[in-house]
């Protein structure tokens, strides 16, 4: 066993930490902060004491005891982290105070549909008569047009609204989508519907200036695509695929992606961040000549990768890829060996420290399942499928890539979506090259203002969409694995 084959310390502590986060999930009362904090501190002090008296106590003869203590510490740390992240248990949560009006800010980019406008709001103040109370917590706000027009809202804007919010209702049908649980993962437990006239602007701004800049920058790039691409579906795919902008797709196109098992292509993922890295790395390759330029290149790469992560809405899969790529870039620049498994465990641990509720995020679960398949299963498949011909080996490599990811995400696909696209391999082989070309052309088009590429860009998207629609109508692809759960 080489020194690189030893299991990562983050691989060992990740399991008890995840179990700790899961212990209280779904419980109404999670007020265990002080007891768990006391236990965590006690175990930590005990571990430090044992470490300092390692030789005196001959701990090397009782490694099981020290291992159990470390696991218990990270188990209790997971519980404590979950309790601390639970918004409802915060004593200043706005739902704990009677109020007539609330002072809120737009906490995310508003999503406009044909008949309504929806956004996540952060509640800062609750007003009751002449009293005001500083609060915390999030609220889902839906603006219905009524007789007026939908307002144009932006991230960070402050508004006053009436406090006639309601608790998000649970699903009343077992097969119905659990909207309540999905919102709870985003720390949202209440929602409100308003008419445009009930939204009163304070002409103030809150939030992070960098996020506001990134969203405004993305809006400009989306507007560029809107001017250059005439086909509505092609525009929606381009905006979603490259910029992470949640544009509307028609039902037929969305169904084609879903039936063929290629719906993942419509969300910005690790592959997209990887392509961004490859493009930037190639453009900055001339900086590898000198040491000082090499480290300037590292700073530029990390800055632009994280800006793209911010630009696309910092979803779980993009965050995972950004963390892993950052570690890879830093290790490579320092001439250190990089083990994909260690990077995988470390990135998961970092993201769960950032937000423990990500553990139940479907994107987080699918992303880490897929990348686990690529790390653990794909090398084995590549050993089995070998061709001397380059023309045969390349498709075989793509096939092993697709199979590895799909095998590891299969249980989650069945659990969440109750179906599995049997002929996903055909569709994924068809879509891989167009998606890569679209990413390159779409990014180059925006960076260098090469607008003459837009007809090719639009045609390629339409070609991909129509190809998937034909595949979805194929008799072979009509056979899906549907699962029905009996309760």
Automatic annotation (TrEMBL):
GO terms for cellular component: plasma membrane. This is Contig2, whole genome shotgun sequence. It comes from Pedobacter lusitanus. It is found in: Cell membrane. Keywords: Cell membrane, Membrane, Transmembrane, Transmembrane helix. The keyword Transmembrane helix applies. Residues 241-465 form the ComEC/Rec2-related protein domain. It comes from the Bacteria. It is a multi-pass membrane protein. The chain crosses the membrane at residues 32-53, 65-82, 261-280, 343-360, 397-418, 430-453. NCBIfam families: ComEC_N-term.
